[in-house]
Amino acid sequence: MRQHRRFAFDLKRLILLLALVSTVITLLTSYLAIFQVEKKLLIESSLRASQSYAARLSLTADLFFNAAQKQVAYSADLLGDEFDNRDAITEEADRLQVQSKRFSSVLVVDKTGVVRAASRNSAEMVGLKLVSGANTAALSTQNPVLSSPFRTAQGNHIMVLSSPIRNARGGYLGYLATEIDLSKSSIVDTLINARNYRKDAYIYVIDREGDVLYRDASGWIESVPQGHVNKALLGDREQGFLLMDNLQGEASLAGFAAMEVAGWTVLVLHPARADVVLLYNVMMQVLLYTLPIVILVFICIWLLTRYISMPLRQLASRADTMDSEDVSQEIEQINAWYYESSKLKTVMLQGIRLLHQRIEKLSTEAHTDPMTGLLNRRGFYELVDKQLTEVSRIAVITLDIDHFKKINDTYGHDVGDVVITQLARLILDSSREGDLLCRMGGEEFLLLLPGASVTQAIQLAERLRRQVESHHFEGAGNVTISLGVTHFYPGRDNIDGALKAADKALYQAKNEGRNRVINL
Ligand SMILES: Nc1nc2c(ncn2[C@@H]2O[C@H](COP(=O)(O)OP(=O)(O)OP(=O)(O)O)[C@@H](O)[C@H]2O)c(=O)[nH]1
């Protein structure tokens, strides 16, 4: 019987699931790998770009300070010879201020920190004692000094570049101080152009301690440092890059380069978020490029899965109908194209062959009388149902051995068996092809004569009776039989009714003295 039970997971679904899971895992791993590599490349190139931009800015600033320092040193040299000549040093200070575009004012300071002479635009400073940090540094080091930005008492935001003045014997006389006005210095312009690099970048200049001197959002920072960068992060390197938080605490990519003259560091920073967005765009592109291939792969997997599972699926569905007659033919047609399915197909075909043989044997055993080889009662009824429906008329003869009990009792059961077997042979020999002889039980037989008339049946019954009467049965000698004859029309009459009538005729034959034929 065909079973319609379906499992949630059949082979096709399982293979499909397995293939899909492995494909998805492979894809995800690949995307993750691409993501990591891209991230590394992007961040590294971003960091390197920031570093090289910081280096460029640092070089530009260095060129500026270098040139300025040389100019100041040159004038300081000249002043050493004429330090006592106030007119001459005033003249030189003024010349330096006017000729140079870099300095807002020029002061000649003696070694006590008092302004000895000044360019004309700062004449009011002459005679004042300076107290700024830049002054202290210049006097104490007696070396060229570049100060941090600071605001003067007059409110000017400046940076001081100074150079020591010495006499011909090298004696320290004081220093030449030049002020760089940070509100209009070209160095400010240079650094402010950081936006040329990228819009989200910020430029910082930090001093040796990490205090922020310049921030391109605010320019050069005034007296109080507005921020602090952990200088240790930069290490001892002249240039480099690193990941760090900006002053707002945002994760940023930073490149840096040290300024040689000032000893400060230029830091170029931009938030990492922009690169992350870029990275996601790149990943989206990768996804878009690979998507059609992924879909194609999925379709191929699906088709292949169908192709692989098909033979097993077909074999499995035939397993439900192994008892049907044409199942072998159906299995033969299955394309079992790979080893396992072909092996299974062969085994199923063998199994079905054996099963059918066994069923046939059991069926034969169930329908046959083992002693005579004739159909038994069950076999008779099945055959009648199957084969005799199309015959218009059937004659029925029932026959029974007379006094068989006596034969058994007199000669033994084995002799009785021989009598039954020989009688079956006798009847078979006398009947036509197409006639149907059955052993209905014990010593009772039934003979169906399809198409025969009652007269023909009576004649046959009489002939049989005489043959048996004259036959010598081994071990038992002469035996007689009684016969009942009737007929019926299969389309019209019931077989059971005919059998009853035949039995009745037989019963009458027995009653009337046995060894006779009665027709009813
Ligand atoms: N040897 C042998 N005896 C059988 C077999 N089947 C039934 N018998 C015997 O057949 C006998 C049938 O006896 P009954 O039905 O009483 O009838 P009967 O002795 O033939 O007498 P009537 O039929 O009235 O002439 C019984 O003794 C059964 O044991 C068989 O296969 N072999």
UniProtKB/TrEMBL annotation:
Residues 392-520 form the GGDEF domain. It is found in: Cell membrane. It is a multi-pass membrane protein. This is diguanylate cyclase. It comes from Rahnella variigena. Pathway: Purine metabolism; 3',5'-cyclic di-GMP biosynthesis. It catalyses: 2 GTP = 3',3'-c-di-GMP + 2 diphosphate. Keywords: Cell membrane, Membrane, Transmembrane, Transmembrane helix.
